[in-house]
Design a protein that fits this description.
124 residues, elongated, two-stranded antiparallel sheet, nine-stranded antiparallel β-sheet, mainly beta
Length: 124
């Protein structure tokens, strides 16, 4: 039974949906994320000890606050003989950096962790 790394992910969670694909011809991973109805495109997809990390800036306010979205997806192996999608669970973090670390009283960052579920597959 040969296994191959998945190259297509679909996922959904608490007000987040997304698709991540590896574009074989260019060798680049690309993501389309939808948060609260707003669509974000990102090629900031990296592999880490956590799996795949997808990052995008959601909001950049004039008061120095910046809101980011980090989606973490597991690396998945697919049985290339039957090519059935593999289900997974994961998480996303919507985090806000408040001004500068010395410009606010209290925590300089805040985090909103959201659970995700989805499927990973091999797209030829």
């Amino acid at each position: 039974m040969p296994f191959t790394a998945a190259n297509h992910y679909d996922f959904t969670g608490d007000d987040i949906t997304g698709t991540v694909d590896a574009h074989r011809s260019a060798g680049v991973w690309a993501a389309q994320l939808v948060l609260s109805g707003q669509t974000f495109e990102s090629t900031d997809v990296t592999r880490s000890d956590l799996g795949f990390e997808i990052r995008t800036v959601v909001d950049n306010l004039s008061d120095g606050n910046r809101t980011h979205l980090l989606v973490v997806l597991p690396r998945v192996s697919v049985d290339s003989d039957d090519n059935q999608p593999v289900t997974f669970t994961s998480y996303a973090v919507l985090y806000t950096v408040h001004g500068g670390s010395t410009e606010v009283h209290g925590a300089a960052e805040s985090y909103d962790v959201r659970l995700l579920s989805g499927t990973a597959s091999l797209v030829g």
